[in-house]
Write a structure and sequence with these properties.
globular, single chain, two-stranded antiparallel ribbon
């Protein structure tokens, strides 16, 4: 019994293009909302939660619809095709609206412009503002206009703490005053953003459900490792582009994103073309069904509605694994949705490089984790991953500007390995309890749990960051990951099931 790695890689291009989009979305959209529109962390957290709020309803819906689709291209492929094309086009349109907002800011949108700094000072000199550390200040009590307009974003090639602590909050407050005075651009931005998110929601569940559609149950952890490897490859590609475009640089905080977004859209469409040319979903699904029969793999008893009937202990395990998913996403997504802002304002680091190290560590870990999980079991692997993730976030909470870059890189590498260990096994544990006819439905359960967490956590973590300071991010994340450890201990179903070998295969000790 061996996994067809070539076929799984081809299927993985659907997840590759999904993660290309989300990596760009999670790192750039928060910067646009706070830098260009001047939103608070709480308000931007609400916007960042919209995709997850939509996902609560749309992912289970389209997962279930795709279960019943009988198109010539297959159950999942039509959704992937339409959703990707629409999302890529609208994503580029979003950058045009971002450019329109930047034009409204005029000189204040130009980094190190004396005229822009004078405009900001005049508008915000008597307002109460807050540094990234949570210290409140009034601009006019710290600087005269002449002193303020002399502050630059960098000194001797290093980022200037005075700029980050005082100019950036004042500039963002000014941007919000401009947005409130003429909100039309924000309205258009939000409408297009919602359409992009709907387009992505159309095909996310079908794309993820495709792997178990074409992979027999005992090999799904290994296959999920390959799929997640493809996703991480997409994420790391976007982070490399971020380094090339210097998207995390303080000097580029007010840059135009049209070229960057266009490159992202091109990569998504190129990955879609490879997927369409190499994946024959109906044939792959038929091959999986034949292989399942060959090994005598039971898809479960039908309850009369086309769904597998779960026993009471199985239902309990399903509830606790979904609760665990919610809790570790509460921690993990708080970091991924806020780190691009946190890295610059608290650590003075390039977020692209740190996140790229985490993605690279995950890529290295995915295949070994898949193999190890098939030996020791999914639950034990997840528990190890949760402990590592909590440790990484807990230690990261102690890091500040001037702390060792190598230590922060090591912590993110550990977080990458930990997330790979969790991610490879959690989804297969959920769909292990399904049957072939309702994989999309169980995929919807999984994403409902993760999206519920990702809906709430940007707003909750943003509230703490606004009122207690930016440095609450990592303690918040570590606390939720530790709670997931408790709930995961209550899960007793969904683990790997050994398959009895038949005939001569019974004498073969290899997979």
């Amino acid at each position: 019994m061996k996994l067809n790695y070539k076929r799984t890689l081809c299927v993985g291009f659907a997840f590759f293009l999904i993660m290309v989009f989300w990596q760009a979305y999670d790192t750039i959209i928060p910067k646009i909302l706070t830098d260009k529109f001047g939103m608070s962390q709480t308000a931007s957290g609400f916007v960042m939660a919209l995709d997850n709020l939509l996902g609560l309803f749309l992912l289970p819906l389209f997962g279930a619809i795709s279960d019943r689709c009988s198109a010539r291209l297959g159950k999942r492929t039509p959704f992937i095709l339409v959703g990707t094309v629409v999302a890529a086009v609208l994503f580029v349109c979003l950058s045009f609206v971002d450019g329109a907002q930047l034009a409204k800011l005029a000189d204040a949108g130009v980094i190190d412009s004396e005229q822009g700094l004078a405009t900001i000072y005049e508008a915000q000199k008597d307002a109460e503002l807050m540094t990234p550390e949570g210290d409140r200040f009034v601009l006019s009590e710290l600087y005269t206009e002449e002193e303020f307009t002399a502050i630059r974003s960098a000194m001797d090639g290093e980022e200037n703490p005075a700029y980050t602590n005082y100019v950036v909050p004042a500039r963002q407050a000014y941007a919000w005053s401009v947005t409130k005075g003429a909100p039309g651009t924000l309205v258009v931005f939000m409408v297009i953003l919602l359409l992009v998110l709907v387009a992505m929601a159309i095909f996310r569940s079908p794309a993820v459900a495709l792997m178990p559609d074409v992979t027999i149950k005992p090999l799904r952890s290994k296959a999920n490792a390959v799929i997640n490897l493809m996703g991480s490859a997409g994420g790391i590609l976007v982070l490399i582009l971020g380094l090339v475009f210097a998207t995390s640089s303080t000097q580029n905080a007010m840059m135009r994103y049209t070229v960057f977004f266009s490159v992202i859209a091109f990569i998504m469409l190129a990955a879609l073309c490879i997927f369409m040319l190499t994946v024959r979903e109906p044939k792959f699904a038929l091959d999986m069904q034949r292989e399942s029969k060959r090994y005598g793999i039971d898809e479960g008893e039908d309850d009369g509605s086309g769904s597998r009937a779960l026993s009471k202990p199985e239902r309990k395990s399903l509830i606790f694994i979904l609760l665990s998913v919610m809790l570790w996403y509460m921690g993990y997504n708080a970091v991924t949705s806020k780190y691009s802002v946190y890295a610059g304002q608290v650590l003075g680091l390039d977020y692209n490089l740190t996140l790229m190290i985490a993605q690279a560590a995950a890529i290295v870990a995915y295949l070994p984790v898949g193999v190890i999980s098939s030996k020791i079991g999914r639950k034990k692997a997840i528990l190890a991953g949760v402990v590592m993730l909590a440790l990484a976030f807990g230690c990261a909470s102690l890091m500040r500007r001037g702390s060792s870059v190598l230590v922060m890189d090591a912590l993110f590498a550990l977080a990458g390995v930990a997330w790979a260990t969790i991610n490879v096994n959690s989804f297969p544990m959920v769909v292990e309890m399904s049957r072939g006819s309702d994989i999309g439905r169980y995929t919807g359960f999984y994403y409902t749990a993760s999206m519920a967490a990702q809906t709430a956590t940007p707003m909750i973590s943003g509230f703490f960051m606004d009122h207690l300071g930016m440095t609450t991010l990592f303690p918040y994340a570590a606390a939720f990951v530790l709670l997931a450890l408790v709930t995961m201990l209550m899960v007793h179903h969904g683990d790997n099931k050994p398959i009895a070998k038949k005939g001569l295969e019974a004498f073969n000790v290899e997979d």
